[in-house]
Amino acid sequence: MLVLENIGKRYGTLTALDGVSLRIEAGEFFGLLGPNGAGKSTLMSLVAGLRSPDTGSITLDGRPLTAADAAARMTLGLVPQHIALYPKLSAEQNLKIFGQLYGLGGALLRERIDGGLEAMHLADRRRDPVHTFSGGMQRRLNIVASLLHRPKLLLCDEPTVGVDPQSRNAIFEFLEHLNREGLTVIYSTHYMEEATRLCSRIGIIDHGKIHALGTLDELLLRLPFEEEIRFPADDRTAGLAAQLADAGTIEQTEELFRFRPRPGYPLSTFYGRTESLGLPARLFTSQRPTLEALFLHLTGRKLRE
């Protein structure tokens, strides 16, 4: 569906994107995960046609996607990182303006406005000025505006920044529903939990480069360990720690042993050993690898630095 090949973008001496290549298939919920300044918004703006890349090409269904091609951009919807609404106008008036910009009108536009407001739980506030809305309500209205023309590809650039938990859940559920109905979504975020919940495939971006690409399970396999088990470092567990030396890596802090099994080591064997030594299960906590840990492993810094 969408293909980016060797995309580069510079702002003066700053390299915002450096040789980015991606292929997004129809029906995907693709996540672009990275910290602020990683290049996510620049990439979104290039796909949306707001800017042109310095190098490389972007095609949608085999057709070049450029800033000058207004017809191609009609197949896209953009939810920008910053609210793009007229604050003194009502929700309904805002949606009428956006709908008319897309060439909609009459009964069809009224139907889509009604459906969008209802879906995002804003119908009872349709005549209220947008400046009276909470940040979360404005975000939801922005999403409705981006979908009036029924795009085949929706670009969401950090759409939950500053949003309350209720609005965040409403946005998640709405986007998941649209994706199940066939809408392709590209979703940028610096929240690991959002990418984990929403995205069928994830690209990890930092300093303008894609460092890893795949499903959540595929990405986590890139970590040098599959699981970590922690348990108290005391006389009760010293014997177990000694037995585990040949089964993976065992590290000791003042209070804890941290055991990382070697690839293929069955955890049933580990728990069999604990039972044979009479050690209760409550002593052990299992920590699975996370996207946060993967990002640190790939880039050497935390996701939110």
UniProtKB/TrEMBL annotation:
| The ABC transporter domain, residue ranges | 2-232
Q: Which UniProt keywords apply?
A: ATP-binding, Hydrolase, Nucleotide-binding
Q: Which Pfam families match?
A: ABC_tran
Q: Check the record and name the Gene3D superfamilies matching this protein.
A: P-loop containing nucleotide triphosphate hydrolases
* The EC number(s) this enzyme carries: 3.6.3.-
Instruction: Kindly report, in one word, the top-level EC class recorded for this enzyme.
Output: hydrolase
Give the matching PANTHER family: LINEARMYCIN RESISTANCE ATP-BINDING PROTEIN LNRL
Entry protein name: Daunorubicin/doxorubicin resistance ATP-binding protein DrrA
Protein's gene: drrA
